[in-house]
C-alpha cells in the first residue's frame, strides 16, 4: 500500500474517534497506591455500562495517535529523513482493561513513542571550491594561462574562465558551477602543469552579486530628475560671445610662437612611427621551432606541376545540389586532392615513409593519415584525417567539415592533431598563385595547393582558356628521390583531372 494512502486512512480514523469519543478524561495524577489510570468502580449489583470507561476512550484515542506516529515514522524512513526529534510529553497505556477489578496501567518510560518529521537539508551557499588544471595529453607537459575573467566577476556553469595555451592547441577551463571568482591562483601568462590549482570559485554568489543591481538602478532613476535643471546652462552660449574680448593679442610675437609649436605634437598622429611589442604565445613559438627544425634537419626540395580543373569543376557543378541534399554538406575540391594523395601515396610508399634519426632506419607505413593545414587566428593547426585509403569522397568531406568546425570553435584536442604521415596545405583559399610549402616534421613531404586561375593552355595543338592550378610537392631529398617525387605529383594530376582513374585503379 502506498505510504500516502496509509497516512490518509490513519488521519481519517483519528477524525472518527475524535468525533465519537465522549468528553471524559482520566485524571492527570493517579490515585495514591495506584500505578495505573483511574477507573470508574461500579457496584457488583449494578448492570454493566455499555459505555467504556473514560480511560479506555482516552486509550483508544491515544492508540490512534500511536498508529499515526508509526505511520509517520514509516514515511520518514522511506524518504531517507535524516533528522529525528523525540516528543516525550505523552504517556500511552500499554493495554486496555474493561473489567473494573483490574486497573489500566501506566507504561514505563520505554513505551514513549517518537514523532519523526520531514526536514529539507539547507543548500550550502557560499561554498568555495578550487578549480585545477585539467590533465594534458601525453606529449604536452605544460601550458600558459590566459584569463578570460577577473576577481569578482560572476560566471555561469560551464562558462569559460581561462584558456591554457599548449604547444599544439588551447584547452578551455570552464566554471564547474555558477558563482563569483574569489581568487586567481596563477598570474596571467603563468605556466601550469596538469593538476595545478588555477582559481577559487564561490558558489551561489551570483544572485547576491546581481541583487544590488536593482538598487543601483533606483539611484540612477533618482539621479535622472536632475537633468531638467540643465536648461540654465543655456546661458553659457550667451556667455561664449563674451569670450572673444580675451582674443586681444597684446603680445603678437608670443602668440605666434605657441601656434607654431602647436603643430609639432600633431606629427605623431599623422605619420605614426610607434612600436608595439606583443609576447609570442606558446603555439606560435612551437610553430617557429618546428619549422626551423625542418630546415635544419631535412634536405628539402620542391617540384611543381599544374592541374587542369575543368573536369572536377564540371563534376562539382552537376552533382553539388544532389550531394548537399543527401549528405547535408557541400562538395568541395579538397576531397578530390585528399583522395588523390592517398592513391599516390600507396603508389609511392617512400613519400609516406619517414626516417628515424635515432636508429637510422626508414619506417614505411601501410596506412595513410593526411594532415590538413588550417589557419586560425592563433596560428596554423594541422588536424589529421585518419585511414584515408579506406574513405570515399563523402567520408572525406564529412571529416574535413567536422575538423574545420572544431578549428573555428577552438575545440581541437591534441589527439586530433597527433600523428599524420602526409600534409596538404591549401593556400589557394587566400588567392595564392605559387609557393613552396615547408615540411611538417617528422613527415617527409607536403603538398601545396594554390588558387584556380584561367590561363591559356595548349590543348591538342590549340590554345584554350582553362581553369588551372599550380601544385607543389616539397619533399625530404634524403629519403625521396626526384623520380619518386615527380611520379607522385603526376599521379595527383591524373586523378584530379579525371577522377575515373580511381575506379580503374590506374
* Percent strand: 15-25%
Question: What is the CATH C level class of the domain at 300-503, in words?
Answer: Alpha Beta
CATH architecture annotation of the domain at 300-503? 2-Layer Sandwich
Total beta strands: 20
By DSSP (H or I, 4+ residues per run), the number of helices equals 13
Task: Give the C-alpha Rg.
Answer: 44 Å
End-to-end Cα distance, whole Å, is: 78 Å
Task: Name the overall outline.
Answer: extended
Mean pLDDT across the residues is 74
**Structural class label:** alpha+beta
Give me the side-by-side strand order of the main sheet.
Answer: 11-20-19-18-14-17
Please give the largest β-sheet: 6 strands, mixed
Helical percent range?
A: 25-40%
What low-confidence regions span 5 or more consecutive residues with pLDDT below 50? 24-42, 78-123, 207-224, 230-261
Look up the CATH topology of the domain at 300-503: Chloramphenicol Acetyltransferase
By CATH, the superfamily of the domain at 300-503 comes out as Chloramphenicol acetyltransferase-like domain
Task: Describe the 3D structure.
This protein is an alpha+beta fold and 506 residues long. Among the domains are: 141-203, OB fold (Dihydrolipoamide Acetyltransferase, E2P) (Beta Barrel); 300-503, 2-Layer Sandwich (Chloramphenicol Acetyltransferase). The chain is built from 13 helices and 20 strands. Strands 11-20-19-18-14-17 form a six-stranded mixed beta sheet. A four-stranded antiparallel beta sheet has the order 3-10-8-5. β12 (354-356) and β13 form a beta hairpin. α1 packs antiparallel against α2 (54-78), α10 packs across α11 and α10 packs across α12. The two termini are 78 Å apart. Residues 24-42, 78-123, 207-224 and 230-261 have low confidence and may be disordered.
Amino acid at each position: 500500500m502506498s505510504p500516502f494512502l496509509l497516512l490518509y486512512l490513519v488521519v481519517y480514523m483519528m477524525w472518527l474517534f475524535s468525533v465519537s469519543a465522549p468528553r471524559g478524561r482520566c485524571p492527570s495524577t493517579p490515585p495514591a497506591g495506584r500505578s495505573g489510570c483511574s477507573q470508574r468502580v461500579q457496584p457488583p449489583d449494578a448492570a454493566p455500562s455499555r459505555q467504556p470507561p473514560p480511560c479506555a476512550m482516552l486509550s483508544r484515542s491515544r492508540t490512534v495517535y500511536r498508529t499515526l506516529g508509526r505511520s509517520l515514522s514509516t514515511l520518514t524512513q522511506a524518504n531517507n529523513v535524516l533528522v529525528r526529534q523525540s516528543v516525550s510529553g505523552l504517556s500511552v497505556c500499554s493495554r486496555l482493561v474493561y473489567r473494573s477489578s483490574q486497573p489500566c496501567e501506566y507504561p514505563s518510560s520505554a513505551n514513549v513513542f517518537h514523532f519523526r518529521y520531514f526536514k529539507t537539508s539547507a543548500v550550502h551557499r557560499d561554498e568555495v571550491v578550487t578549480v585545477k588544471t585539467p590533465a594534458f595529453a601525453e606529449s604536452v607537459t605544460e601550458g600558459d594561462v590566459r584569463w578570460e575573467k577577473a576577481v569578482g566577476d560572476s560566471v555561469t556553469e560551464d562558462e569559460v574562465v581561462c584558456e591554457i595555451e599548449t604547444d599544439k592547441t588551447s584547452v578551455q577551463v570552464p566554471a564547474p558551477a555558477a558563482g563569483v571568482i574569489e581568487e586567481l591562483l596563477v598570474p596571467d601568462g603563468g605556466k601550469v602543469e596538469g593538476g595545478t590549482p588555477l582559481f577559487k570559485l564561490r558558489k551561489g554568489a551570483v544572485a547576491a552579486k546581481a541583487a544590488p543591481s536593482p538598487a543601483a538602478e533606483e539611484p540612477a532613476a533618482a539621479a535622472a530628475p536632475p537633468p531638467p535643471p540643465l536648461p540654465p546652462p543655456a546661458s553659457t552660449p550667451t556667455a561664449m560671445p563674451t569670450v572673444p574680448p580675451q582674443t586681444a593679442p597684446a603680445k603678437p610675437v608670443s602668440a605666434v610662437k605657441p601656434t607654431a609649436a602647436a603643430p609639432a605634437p600633431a606629427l605623431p598622429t599623422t605619420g605614426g612611427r610607434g612600436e608595439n611589442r606583443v609576447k609570442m604565445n606558446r603555439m606560435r613559438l612551437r610553430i617557429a621551432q618546428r619549422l626551423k627544425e625542418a630546415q635544419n634537419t631535412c634536405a628539402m626540395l620542391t617540384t611543381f606541376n599544374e592541374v587542369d580543373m575543368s573536369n572536377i569543376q564540371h563534376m562539382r557543378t552537376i552533382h553539388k545540389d544532389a550531394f548537399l541534399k543527401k549528405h547535408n554538406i557541400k562538395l568541395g575540391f579538397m576531397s578530390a586532392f585528399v583522395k588523390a594523395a592517398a592513391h599516390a601515396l600507396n603508389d609511392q610508399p617512400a613519400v609516406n615513409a619517414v626516417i628515424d634519426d635515432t636508429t637510422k632506419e626508414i619506417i614505411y607505413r601501410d596506412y595513410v593519415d593526411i594532415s590538413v593545414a588550417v589557419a586560425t587566428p592563433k596560428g596554423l593547426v594541422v588536424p589529421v584525417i585518419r585511414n584515408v585509403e579506406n574513405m570515399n569522397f563523402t567520408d572525406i568531406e564529412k571529416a574535413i567539415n567536422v575538423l574545420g568546425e572544431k578549428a573555428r570553435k577552438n575545440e581541437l584536442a591534441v589527439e586530433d592533431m597527433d600523428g599524420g604521415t602526409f600534409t596538404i596545405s591549401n593556400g589557394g583559399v587566400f588567392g595564392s598563385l605559387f609557393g613552396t610549402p615547408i615540411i611538417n616534421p617528422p613527415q617527409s613531404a607536403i603538398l601545396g595547393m594554390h588558387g584556380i586561375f584561367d590561363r591559356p593552355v595548349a590543348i591538342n595543338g590549340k590554345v584554350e582558356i582553362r581553369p588551372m592550378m599550380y601544385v607543389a610537392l616539397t619533399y625530404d631529398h634524403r629519403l625521396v628521390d626526384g623520380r619518386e617525387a615527380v611520379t607522385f605529383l603526376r599521379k595527383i594530376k591524373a586523378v584530379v583531372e579525371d577522377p575515373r582513374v580511381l575506379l580503374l585503379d590506374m
